[in-house]
Every structure is written in C-alpha cells, then in structure tokens.
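EI: anyone free to look at a 229-residue chain?
SC: sure, send it
EI:
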Amino acid sequence: MGGMDKEVDGILVAAHELKAPLAVLRQLALSFDEMDMRGEHIRSEMISVSERAIKQVNDLTKIRRLEDGLFVMEPVAVREVCDAVSRELEYLFNYNRRDLYIKYSNRARLVTANRELLYSVVYNFLLNAMHYSGDETRAELVVRDVKDKVKIEIRDYGPMLPMDVWREMKRGWVKKPTSIAMRPGSSGLGLYIASKFSRYMNAKVGVVRHRDGTSFYVDLPVSTQASLF
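SC: here you go
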C-alpha cells in the first residue's frame, strides 16, 4: 500500500506543478487584443484546452483529499448533473463534429452521491467518449433504473478498449493512469479519476466492450429520500 501512496503522491506533486503554467497559458490567451476570426478561434481553443487541463489537475488534487472524508454524500438530482455536464461540453462536441444523444428513462430522480464528484465522473466519461468516437459519429448518454440503482451509461463508437484495461475496469477500478493502446492521446487519466471518485461514493463503475466502441457506466444507489419528492 505504501508504494501506491507514493505513486499517488508523485502524481499529485506533478499535478500541482502543472497548474501554475496552465493558469498562465489561459491568462495569456485571455489577454490578446482583438483578432481576426481565425485568431479568435485559436484563442478560444487555447482557453478551452487549458481550462479542461486545469479541471483534471483539480480532480487529481481531490484524490488525496478523499481520505479525509470531506466530500459529503447526499441526495443528488442525477439528470441535473448530466444536463450540466452536457451543456459544458456541448461546444467541444460541436467543434469536433460529434453528436451527443441523451436519453433519460429513470423513474428514481435522486441518487446518493456527492454532486461535485459525480459531475467529474460524468464529465470524464463524456470527454473520453468525445475523443474516441469516430468523425461524424455520436456519443450516447443514457440514464436508467436498474433494480435499486440508477445507471449512467456513456457509449462511444471508437476503437475497442484493450483487454487489460477492460479487465481492470471490470474489477471496479483503475489502479493508476496508463496509456490506452488503440486510443491515441489517452493517458487513462479520466478513467483513473472517475474510478477513484466512484469508489468513494460506493458506486459501481464498469465497462462494456462492443465491436464498434465502448460503454462506460456508473451505478449509483437510489436516495432513500426520493420518496419525499
């Protein structure tokens, strides 16, 4: 366990070091004077990329804070979280010519979770799906009831997930960020973050391999306060 703690600490040190230059990069992009249309487009992309990187750095720093139990579990409106994430990533999907299909069929509206952590789980799964869907294809976000749980499932139509990553996700966690073959540019960082946050919330996280892509999901317990609403 000590080795794992050192590994996580090393990741957190690296994350902390990265945050300052990312913030500077974002500020520099914001400080440019008026530009032509192409220049404005490049600037908005610089801001967007730096903000997404800062968000992942912030998520990494939360991993060690999980041990302190600072993230309160409470009733969370699952559709509201999914709507908020999809709104934030709408620009990115449009820019990359990807469609996002959303379907809600869950009768249980509240789950027991931490909203901040659940937002990050859905965000990282959706960002993963956007990156690895093929051109002109869509990603799918489906929320449905499964027995006494609510399942959030995010499906992409990219390359099949390698067996070693699939096996580890089947066990319910990713031990450390790893590169994912057949999915270029992926460090597995988003999956690592999502698995850590899901375990903290006592939520089951997993993956289904398809011939034409992958579905990542998280199963959340229905809130016992749901009957009050």
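EI: DSSP finds six helices and seven strands in the chain.
SC: 👍
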